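Q: Two folds, back to back.
A: First:
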Amino acid sequence: MDVGPVEYVVIAFPGNHFRGEIEPELRRLVESGTVRILDLTFIKKDAEGLVSYQELEALGPDEASVFDNIDGEVGGLLSEQDLELVARELAPDSAAALIVWEDTWAAPIAGAIRRAGGLLVEHERIPGPVVAQALAAAAG
Protein backbone atom coordinates (compact mmCIF):
# COMPACT_ATOMS: atom_id res chain seq x y z
CA MET A 1 0.00 0.00 0.00
CA ASP A 2 1.35 3.41 -0.95
CA VAL A 3 1.49 5.95 1.84
CA GLY A 4 1.37 9.67 1.23
CA PRO A 5 3.40 12.28 3.09
CA VAL A 6 2.54 12.61 6.78
CA GLU A 7 2.26 16.10 8.25
CA TYR A 8 1.20 17.68 11.47
CA VAL A 9 -0.72 20.86 12.14
CA VAL A 10 -1.07 22.79 15.36
CA ILE A 11 -4.28 24.81 15.64
CA ALA A 12 -4.32 27.22 18.57
CA PHE A 13 -7.49 28.34 20.34
CA PRO A 14 -7.05 31.46 22.50
CA GLY A 15 -9.04 31.43 25.71
CA ASN A 16 -8.93 27.61 25.97
CA HIS A 17 -12.06 27.18 23.87
CA PHE A 18 -12.30 24.69 21.03
CA ARG A 19 -14.84 25.85 18.48
CA GLY A 20 -16.76 23.85 15.92
CA GLU A 21 -16.09 25.87 12.78
CA ILE A 22 -13.22 23.65 11.62
CA GLU A 23 -15.07 20.36 12.07
CA PRO A 24 -17.09 20.41 8.80
CA GLU A 25 -14.02 21.18 6.70
CA LEU A 26 -11.82 18.63 8.48
CA ARG A 27 -14.58 16.01 8.08
CA ARG A 28 -14.87 16.90 4.37
CA LEU A 29 -11.13 16.36 3.91
CA VAL A 30 -11.32 12.96 5.61
CA GLU A 31 -14.49 11.82 3.81
CA SER A 32 -13.13 12.85 0.41
CA GLY A 33 -9.96 10.83 0.99
CA THR A 34 -7.75 13.91 0.87
CA VAL A 35 -6.30 13.24 4.34
CA ARG A 36 -6.38 10.43 6.89
CA ILE A 37 -6.13 11.38 10.57
CA LEU A 38 -3.36 9.39 12.25
CA ASP A 39 -3.15 11.09 15.63
CA LEU A 40 -4.97 13.83 17.48
CA THR A 41 -4.08 15.31 20.86
CA PHE A 42 -5.25 18.43 22.67
CA ILE A 43 -2.97 20.65 24.70
CA LYS A 44 -4.28 23.12 27.26
CA LYS A 45 -2.30 25.80 29.08
CA ASP A 46 -4.05 27.66 31.88
CA ALA A 47 -3.50 31.30 32.81
CA GLU A 48 -0.68 30.31 35.21
CA GLY A 49 1.07 28.27 32.53
CA LEU A 50 0.12 24.79 33.82
CA VAL A 51 -0.07 22.41 30.85
CA SER A 52 -2.26 19.35 30.37
CA TYR A 53 -2.54 16.92 27.48
CA GLN A 54 -5.72 15.12 26.50
CA GLU A 55 -6.60 12.54 23.93
CA LEU A 56 -9.93 13.02 22.18
CA GLU A 57 -11.78 10.58 24.43
CA ALA A 58 -10.67 12.48 27.56
CA LEU A 59 -12.24 15.79 26.51
CA GLY A 60 -15.50 17.03 27.94
CA PRO A 61 -18.64 16.45 25.84
CA ASP A 62 -18.81 20.03 24.56
CA GLU A 63 -15.20 20.07 23.36
CA ALA A 64 -15.16 16.49 22.00
CA SER A 65 -18.39 16.95 20.06
CA VAL A 66 -16.52 19.18 17.61
CA PHE A 67 -14.77 16.04 16.33
CA ASP A 68 -17.65 13.52 16.64
CA ASN A 69 -18.13 13.00 12.92
CA ILE A 70 -14.49 12.64 11.92
CA ASP A 71 -13.13 9.17 11.31
CA GLY A 72 -9.48 8.32 11.80
CA GLU A 73 -7.02 5.85 13.20
CA VAL A 74 -6.02 8.02 16.12
CA GLY A 75 -3.07 7.25 18.35
CA GLY A 76 0.53 6.46 18.92
CA LEU A 77 2.52 8.77 16.66
CA LEU A 78 2.99 11.74 18.98
CA SER A 79 5.52 11.45 21.76
CA GLU A 80 5.53 13.31 25.05
CA GLN A 81 8.49 15.30 23.74
CA ASP A 82 6.44 16.37 20.68
CA LEU A 83 3.67 17.59 22.95
CA GLU A 84 6.10 19.44 25.22
CA LEU A 85 7.61 21.29 22.24
CA VAL A 86 4.18 22.51 21.15
CA ALA A 87 3.20 23.41 24.72
CA ARG A 88 6.28 25.62 25.13
CA GLU A 89 5.10 27.82 22.26
CA LEU A 90 1.48 27.94 23.42
CA ALA A 91 0.39 31.20 25.06
CA PRO A 92 -1.05 31.06 28.59
CA ASP A 93 -4.84 30.62 28.77
CA SER A 94 -5.04 28.90 25.40
CA ALA A 95 -5.40 25.47 23.91
CA ALA A 96 -4.27 23.69 20.77
CA ALA A 97 -5.26 20.71 18.69
CA LEU A 98 -2.24 18.82 17.38
CA ILE A 99 -3.32 16.74 14.39
CA VAL A 100 -1.15 14.30 12.45
CA TRP A 101 -2.54 13.39 9.06
CA GLU A 102 -1.47 11.53 5.96
CA ASP A 103 -1.85 13.40 2.69
CA THR A 104 -3.62 10.46 1.06
CA TRP A 105 -4.09 12.44 -2.17
CA ALA A 106 -0.30 12.22 -2.66
CA ALA A 107 0.05 8.47 -1.99
CA PRO A 108 -0.07 7.45 -5.70
CA ILE A 109 2.72 9.85 -6.72
CA ALA A 110 4.77 8.96 -3.64
CA GLY A 111 4.50 5.27 -4.57
CA ALA A 112 5.40 5.98 -8.21
CA ILE A 113 8.48 7.93 -7.12
CA ARG A 114 9.61 5.04 -4.88
CA ARG A 115 8.98 2.42 -7.58
CA ALA A 116 10.99 4.53 -10.06
CA GLY A 117 13.92 4.56 -7.64
CA GLY A 118 13.47 8.27 -7.00
CA LEU A 119 14.10 10.00 -3.71
CA LEU A 120 12.28 13.04 -2.46
CA VAL A 121 15.18 15.22 -1.35
CA GLU A 122 13.28 18.26 -0.13
CA HIS A 123 9.72 19.19 0.75
CA GLU A 124 8.61 22.33 2.50
CA ARG A 125 5.34 24.19 2.80
CA ILE A 126 5.43 27.84 1.83
CA PRO A 127 3.43 29.88 4.38
CA GLY A 128 0.14 31.29 3.09
CA PRO A 129 1.05 34.95 3.71
CA VAL A 130 4.27 34.53 1.70
CA VAL A 131 2.34 33.01 -1.24
CA ALA A 132 -0.32 35.75 -1.07
CA GLN A 133 2.35 38.46 -1.09
CA ALA A 134 4.20 36.89 -4.02
CA LEU A 135 0.99 36.48 -6.04
CA ALA A 136 0.00 40.08 -5.33
CA ALA A 137 3.43 41.30 -6.40
CA ALA A 138 3.28 39.21 -9.60
CA ALA A 139 -0.17 40.57 -10.42
CA GLY A 140 1.32 43.95 -10.05
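A: Second:
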Amino acid sequence: MTATAAEFLWYIPNEVRPGHRGDDAGAGHNSLETLTGHALALEAHGWGGALIGTGWGRPDTFTVATALAARTTTFRPLIAVRPGYWRPANFASAAATLDHLSSGRVLVNIVSGKDNLAAYGDSEGDQAHRYSRTKEFLQIVRRLWTEERVTYHGEHFTVTDATVVPRPLARHPRLYFGGASPAAEAVAATEADVQLFWGEPLDGVAERIDRLNGLAERLGREHAPLQYGLRITTLVRDTTEQAWADAEAKVAQMAADGGVADPNRHPAVGQQRLLDLAARGDILDDNLYTAPGRYGGGGAGTTWLVGSAEDVAKSLRRYANLGITHFVLSDTPYLPEIKRQGEQLLPLLRA
Protein backbone atom coordinates (compact mmCIF):
# COMPACT_ATOMS: atom_id res chain seq x y z
CA MET A 1 0.00 0.00 0.00
CA THR A 2 1.16 3.53 -0.70
CA ALA A 3 -0.06 6.91 0.45
CA THR A 4 -1.56 7.58 -2.96
CA ALA A 5 -3.16 4.17 -3.41
CA ALA A 6 -4.96 3.80 -0.09
CA GLU A 7 -7.03 5.96 2.25
CA PHE A 8 -6.74 5.70 6.04
CA LEU A 9 -9.54 7.11 8.18
CA TRP A 10 -10.36 6.84 11.89
CA TYR A 11 -13.63 7.10 13.85
CA ILE A 12 -14.85 10.02 15.96
CA PRO A 13 -17.61 9.09 18.46
CA ASN A 14 -20.42 11.65 18.50
CA GLU A 15 -22.29 10.20 21.45
CA VAL A 16 -24.58 11.59 24.15
CA ARG A 17 -23.09 9.35 26.85
CA PRO A 18 -19.36 8.94 27.49
CA GLY A 19 -17.52 5.61 27.45
CA HIS A 20 -18.32 4.45 23.91
CA ARG A 21 -16.71 1.01 23.51
CA GLY A 22 -14.58 1.60 26.58
CA ASP A 23 -13.41 5.12 25.72
CA ASP A 24 -11.86 6.97 28.66
CA ALA A 25 -13.24 10.44 27.84
CA GLY A 26 -15.55 11.72 30.59
CA ALA A 27 -16.92 15.20 31.15
CA GLY A 28 -17.03 17.16 27.94
CA HIS A 29 -16.55 14.06 25.82
CA ASN A 30 -18.80 15.46 23.07
CA SER A 31 -17.82 19.12 23.43
CA LEU A 32 -16.51 21.02 20.44
CA GLU A 33 -13.11 21.28 22.13
CA THR A 34 -12.84 17.52 22.69
CA LEU A 35 -14.04 16.54 19.23
CA THR A 36 -11.82 19.16 17.61
CA GLY A 37 -8.92 17.72 19.60
CA HIS A 38 -9.56 14.37 17.96
CA ALA A 39 -9.70 15.90 14.48
CA LEU A 40 -6.50 17.89 15.01
CA ALA A 41 -4.74 14.80 16.38
CA LEU A 42 -5.76 12.92 13.23
CA GLU A 43 -4.22 15.66 11.10
CA ALA A 44 -1.03 15.62 13.18
CA HIS A 45 -0.58 11.85 13.03
CA GLY A 46 -1.11 11.09 9.37
CA TRP A 47 -4.79 10.17 9.14
CA GLY A 48 -6.93 11.37 6.26
CA GLY A 49 -10.03 12.02 8.34
CA ALA A 50 -12.69 10.12 10.27
CA LEU A 51 -16.07 8.48 10.02
CA ILE A 52 -18.74 10.24 12.09
CA GLY A 53 -21.67 7.94 12.82
CA THR A 54 -25.37 8.67 12.61
CA GLY A 55 -28.52 7.78 14.51
CA TRP A 56 -31.45 9.49 16.19
CA GLY A 57 -30.72 10.34 19.81
CA ARG A 58 -27.11 11.43 19.33
CA PRO A 59 -25.51 14.74 18.29
CA ASP A 60 -26.42 15.54 14.70
CA THR A 61 -23.72 14.12 12.44
CA PHE A 62 -23.75 16.81 9.77
CA THR A 63 -23.53 19.59 12.35
CA VAL A 64 -20.56 17.92 14.06
CA ALA A 65 -18.84 17.40 10.70
CA THR A 66 -19.35 21.04 9.73
CA ALA A 67 -17.92 22.30 13.01
CA LEU A 68 -14.85 20.07 12.72
CA ALA A 69 -14.26 21.00 9.09
CA ALA A 70 -14.27 24.66 10.12
CA ARG A 71 -11.55 24.08 12.73
CA THR A 72 -9.22 21.95 10.59
CA THR A 73 -7.34 22.21 7.32
CA THR A 74 -6.87 18.67 5.94
CA PHE A 75 -9.30 16.59 8.04
CA ARG A 76 -11.94 14.90 5.87
CA PRO A 77 -15.23 14.04 7.61
CA LEU A 78 -16.88 10.85 6.37
CA ILE A 79 -20.43 11.96 7.18
CA ALA A 80 -22.93 9.16 7.79
CA VAL A 81 -26.44 10.09 6.62
CA ARG A 82 -29.79 8.32 6.33
CA PRO A 83 -32.32 8.64 3.49
CA GLY A 84 -35.55 9.64 5.23
CA TYR A 85 -33.76 11.67 7.88
CA TRP A 86 -32.65 13.75 4.91
CA ARG A 87 -34.45 14.35 1.66
CA PRO A 88 -32.06 14.08 -1.29
CA ALA A 89 -32.21 17.66 -2.57
CA ASN A 90 -31.75 19.14 0.92
CA PHE A 91 -28.79 16.88 1.57
CA ALA A 92 -27.22 17.47 -1.86
CA SER A 93 -27.31 21.22 -1.25
CA ALA A 94 -25.96 21.02 2.32
CA ALA A 95 -23.13 18.67 1.37
CA ALA A 96 -22.19 20.69 -1.72
CA THR A 97 -22.04 23.85 0.39
CA LEU A 98 -19.84 22.21 3.03
CA ASP A 99 -17.62 20.74 0.32
CA HIS A 100 -17.27 24.21 -1.21
CA LEU A 101 -16.46 25.85 2.14
CA SER A 102 -14.00 23.12 3.17
CA SER A 103 -12.08 23.10 -0.13
CA GLY A 104 -13.40 19.72 -1.23
CA ARG A 105 -13.03 17.65 1.95
CA VAL A 106 -16.50 16.10 2.25
CA LEU A 107 -16.99 12.31 2.16
CA VAL A 108 -20.43 10.71 2.53
CA ASN A 109 -21.48 7.36 4.03
CA ILE A 110 -25.05 6.35 3.17
CA VAL A 111 -26.68 4.25 5.92
CA SER A 112 -29.88 2.27 5.33
CA GLY A 113 -30.03 0.24 8.54
CA LYS A 114 -32.89 0.52 11.00
CA ASP A 115 -33.21 3.58 13.21
CA ASN A 116 -35.84 5.19 15.46
CA LEU A 117 -37.65 6.46 12.38
CA ALA A 118 -40.91 7.40 14.06
CA ALA A 119 -39.08 9.85 16.32
CA TYR A 120 -38.33 12.13 13.38
CA GLY A 121 -41.44 11.43 11.36
CA ASP A 122 -40.08 8.84 8.96
CA SER A 123 -41.42 5.40 8.06
CA GLU A 124 -40.23 2.43 6.07
CA GLY A 125 -41.58 -0.78 4.66
CA ASP A 126 -39.69 -4.00 4.21
CA GLN A 127 -36.06 -4.40 3.22
CA ALA A 128 -36.82 -4.11 -0.49
CA HIS A 129 -38.61 -0.80 0.12
CA ARG A 130 -35.73 0.52 2.23
CA TYR A 131 -33.06 -0.17 -0.38
CA SER A 132 -35.25 0.97 -3.25
CA ARG A 133 -35.50 4.31 -1.46
CA THR A 134 -31.74 4.39 -0.89
CA LYS A 135 -31.11 3.77 -4.57
CA GLU A 136 -33.30 6.73 -5.53
CA PHE A 137 -31.57 8.90 -2.92
CA LEU A 138 -28.15 8.09 -4.37
CA GLN A 139 -29.28 8.66 -7.94
CA ILE A 140 -30.82 12.05 -7.19
CA VAL A 141 -27.92 13.30 -5.06
CA ARG A 142 -25.34 12.31 -7.65
CA ARG A 143 -27.32 13.99 -10.45
CA LEU A 144 -27.82 17.17 -8.43
CA TRP A 145 -24.07 17.39 -7.85
CA THR A 146 -23.23 16.94 -11.53
CA GLU A 147 -26.17 18.25 -13.60
CA GLU A 148 -28.37 21.32 -13.89
CA ARG A 149 -32.16 21.48 -14.00
CA VAL A 150 -32.66 17.93 -12.70
CA THR A 151 -36.12 16.39 -12.86
CA TYR A 152 -36.68 13.00 -11.23
CA HIS A 153 -40.01 11.37 -10.43
CA GLY A 154 -39.51 8.16 -8.48
CA GLU A 155 -41.49 5.94 -6.18
CA HIS A 156 -40.00 7.57 -3.06
CA PHE A 157 -38.61 10.98 -4.05
CA THR A 158 -39.37 13.70 -6.56
CA VAL A 159 -37.50 16.79 -7.67
CA THR A 160 -38.48 19.13 -10.50
CA ASP A 161 -36.14 21.46 -12.37
CA ALA A 162 -33.64 21.39 -9.48
CA THR A 163 -30.13 22.84 -9.57
CA VAL A 164 -27.70 22.79 -6.64
CA VAL A 165 -25.36 25.74 -6.14
CA PRO A 166 -22.58 26.09 -5.25
CA ARG A 167 -21.19 22.95 -6.82
CA PRO A 168 -18.93 20.53 -4.93
CA LEU A 169 -15.31 21.29 -5.78
CA ALA A 170 -14.69 17.83 -7.21
CA ARG A 171 -17.19 16.19 -9.53
CA HIS A 172 -18.99 14.97 -6.43
CA PRO A 173 -18.13 13.88 -2.86
CA ARG A 174 -17.26 10.20 -2.69
CA LEU A 175 -20.24 8.02 -1.76
CA TYR A 176 -19.58 5.14 0.65
CA PHE A 177 -22.18 2.48 1.33
CA GLY A 178 -22.57 -0.64 3.48
CA GLY A 179 -24.87 -3.63 3.59
CA ALA A 180 -24.58 -7.35 2.89
CA SER A 181 -28.10 -8.40 1.89
CA PRO A 182 -28.84 -9.06 -1.80
CA ALA A 183 -30.92 -5.87 -1.91
CA ALA A 184 -28.06 -3.83 -0.43
CA GLU A 185 -25.44 -5.34 -2.73
CA ALA A 186 -27.53 -4.53 -5.80
CA VAL A 187 -27.57 -0.86 -4.73
CA ALA A 188 -23.83 -0.84 -4.03
CA ALA A 189 -23.00 -2.48 -7.34
CA THR A 190 -24.80 0.16 -9.37
CA GLU A 191 -24.83 3.38 -7.32
CA ALA A 192 -22.05 3.59 -4.68
CA ASP A 193 -18.42 4.66 -5.10
CA VAL A 194 -17.07 2.59 -2.19
CA GLN A 195 -18.56 -0.54 -0.62
CA LEU A 196 -17.57 -0.75 3.07
CA PHE A 197 -17.19 -4.19 4.64
CA TRP A 198 -17.13 -5.03 8.33
CA GLY A 199 -14.17 -7.03 9.65
CA GLU A 200 -14.83 -10.38 8.01
CA PRO A 201 -12.12 -12.98 7.34
CA LEU A 202 -10.22 -12.75 4.09
CA ASP A 203 -12.20 -15.49 2.38
CA GLY A 204 -15.50 -13.73 3.12
CA VAL A 205 -14.24 -10.40 1.81
CA ALA A 206 -12.82 -12.04 -1.33
CA GLU A 207 -16.14 -13.75 -1.97
CA ARG A 208 -18.08 -10.50 -1.62
CA ILE A 209 -15.73 -8.53 -3.87
CA ASP A 210 -16.05 -11.17 -6.55
CA ARG A 211 -19.83 -11.19 -6.24
CA LEU A 212 -20.12 -7.39 -6.31
CA ASN A 213 -17.86 -7.10 -9.36
CA GLY A 214 -20.07 -9.63 -11.13
CA LEU A 215 -23.22 -7.80 -10.06
CA ALA A 216 -21.88 -4.49 -11.33
CA GLU A 217 -21.27 -6.02 -14.73
CA ARG A 218 -24.62 -7.81 -14.92
CA LEU A 219 -26.64 -4.81 -13.71
CA GLY A 220 -24.95 -2.39 -16.08
CA ARG A 221 -23.04 -0.11 -13.68
CA GLU A 222 -22.68 3.33 -15.30
CA HIS A 223 -20.09 4.88 -12.97
CA ALA A 224 -16.37 4.38 -12.37
CA PRO A 225 -15.51 0.88 -11.05
CA LEU A 226 -16.71 0.17 -7.53
CA GLN A 227 -14.01 0.51 -4.87
CA TYR A 228 -13.87 -1.35 -1.56
CA GLY A 229 -13.23 -0.42 2.06
CA LEU A 230 -12.82 -2.10 5.45
CA ARG A 231 -14.26 -0.81 8.76
CA ILE A 232 -12.62 -2.65 11.65
CA THR A 233 -11.20 -2.35 15.16
CA THR A 234 -7.39 -2.56 15.26
CA LEU A 235 -5.92 -3.32 18.69
CA VAL A 236 -2.23 -2.46 18.37
CA ARG A 237 0.41 -2.75 21.11
CA ASP A 238 4.21 -2.72 21.22
CA THR A 239 4.39 -6.52 21.17
CA THR A 240 2.17 -9.37 20.00
CA GLU A 241 2.00 -10.76 23.53
CA GLN A 242 0.95 -7.45 25.06
CA ALA A 243 -1.72 -6.97 22.41
CA TRP A 244 -3.31 -10.35 23.04
CA ALA A 245 -3.15 -9.90 26.81
CA ASP A 246 -4.95 -6.56 26.49
CA ALA A 247 -7.49 -7.95 24.01
CA GLU A 248 -8.36 -10.88 26.28
CA ALA A 249 -8.59 -8.55 29.29
CA LYS A 250 -10.97 -6.28 27.42
CA VAL A 251 -13.21 -9.20 26.45
CA ALA A 252 -13.13 -10.51 30.03
CA GLN A 253 -14.26 -7.09 31.24
CA MET A 254 -17.06 -7.05 28.64
CA ALA A 255 -18.22 -10.43 29.95
CA ALA A 256 -17.97 -9.30 33.58
CA ASP A 257 -20.05 -6.23 32.77
CA GLY A 258 -22.82 -8.49 31.53
CA GLY A 259 -22.30 -7.67 27.87
CA VAL A 260 -23.56 -10.96 26.45
CA ALA A 261 -25.06 -10.82 22.97
CA ASP A 262 -28.84 -11.21 22.97
CA PRO A 263 -29.72 -14.48 21.18
CA ASN A 264 -33.16 -13.08 20.32
CA ARG A 265 -31.98 -9.99 18.50
CA HIS A 266 -32.30 -9.79 14.74
CA PRO A 267 -29.27 -7.90 13.43
CA ALA A 268 -28.73 -6.83 9.84
CA VAL A 269 -27.31 -9.36 7.40
CA GLY A 270 -23.79 -7.92 7.56
CA GLN A 271 -23.79 -7.90 11.37
CA GLN A 272 -25.11 -11.46 11.50
CA ARG A 273 -22.24 -12.57 9.25
CA LEU A 274 -19.83 -11.26 11.89
CA LEU A 275 -21.65 -12.90 14.79
CA ASP A 276 -21.66 -16.23 12.97
CA LEU A 277 -17.87 -16.18 12.74
CA ALA A 278 -17.52 -17.22 16.38
CA ALA A 279 -18.61 -20.73 15.37
CA ARG A 280 -15.42 -20.99 13.30
CA GLY A 281 -13.20 -20.15 16.27
CA ASP A 282 -12.02 -17.29 18.45
CA ILE A 283 -9.12 -16.43 16.13
CA LEU A 284 -9.31 -16.51 12.32
CA ASP A 285 -6.72 -15.53 9.70
CA ASP A 286 -3.88 -15.41 12.28
CA ASN A 287 -5.20 -12.48 14.33
CA LEU A 288 -8.87 -11.71 13.59
CA TYR A 289 -10.43 -11.97 17.07
CA THR A 290 -14.11 -12.97 17.02
CA ALA A 291 -14.73 -13.29 20.78
CA PRO A 292 -15.90 -9.66 21.27
CA GLY A 293 -19.05 -10.43 19.28
CA ARG A 294 -20.15 -12.93 21.93
CA TYR A 295 -20.14 -10.26 24.62
CA GLY A 296 -22.04 -7.44 23.04
CA GLY A 297 -19.52 -6.09 20.58
CA GLY A 298 -21.39 -4.65 17.62
CA GLY A 299 -20.54 -3.11 14.28
CA ALA A 300 -16.82 -2.46 14.01
CA GLY A 301 -16.42 -3.75 17.58
CA THR A 302 -17.56 -7.28 16.72
CA THR A 303 -14.21 -8.47 15.38
CA TRP A 304 -10.75 -7.05 16.12
CA LEU A 305 -7.39 -7.32 14.39
CA VAL A 306 -4.99 -7.87 17.29
CA GLY A 307 -1.20 -7.70 17.48
CA SER A 308 1.90 -5.60 17.17
CA ALA A 309 1.93 -2.90 14.53
CA GLU A 310 3.77 -5.33 12.27
CA ASP A 311 1.15 -8.05 12.83
CA VAL A 312 -1.78 -5.74 12.08
CA ALA A 313 -0.05 -4.12 9.10
CA LYS A 314 0.57 -7.58 7.61
CA SER A 315 -3.12 -8.43 7.98
CA LEU A 316 -4.27 -5.15 6.46
CA ARG A 317 -1.91 -5.67 3.51
CA ARG A 318 -3.62 -9.00 2.88
CA TYR A 319 -6.96 -7.19 2.64
CA ALA A 320 -5.33 -4.67 0.31
CA ASN A 321 -4.18 -7.54 -1.90
CA LEU A 322 -7.84 -8.51 -2.32
CA GLY A 323 -8.70 -5.00 -3.54
CA ILE A 324 -9.41 -3.01 -0.37
CA THR A 325 -8.21 0.58 -0.79
CA HIS A 326 -10.17 2.42 1.94
CA PHE A 327 -9.55 1.64 5.61
CA VAL A 328 -11.61 2.98 8.53
CA LEU A 329 -9.82 1.87 11.70
CA SER A 330 -10.26 2.57 15.41
CA ASP A 331 -9.68 1.39 18.95
CA THR A 332 -10.35 2.81 22.40
CA PRO A 333 -9.43 4.96 24.13
CA TYR A 334 -9.87 6.87 20.88
CA LEU A 335 -7.58 9.86 21.36
CA PRO A 336 -4.44 8.02 22.57
CA GLU A 337 -4.92 5.38 19.89
CA ILE A 338 -5.00 8.03 17.16
CA LYS A 339 -1.41 8.84 18.12
CA ARG A 340 -0.24 5.25 18.78
CA GLN A 341 -1.57 3.82 15.54
CA GLY A 342 -0.68 6.94 13.58
CA GLU A 343 2.93 6.62 14.70
CA GLN A 344 3.30 2.83 14.72
CA LEU A 345 0.86 1.42 12.16
CA LEU A 346 0.42 3.98 9.38
CA PRO A 347 4.12 4.23 8.49
CA LEU A 348 4.22 0.47 7.94
CA LEU A 349 1.16 0.61 5.70
CA ARG A 350 2.64 3.47 3.68
CA ALA A 351 6.16 2.02 3.43
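Q: And?
A: The longest strand covers residues 227-237.
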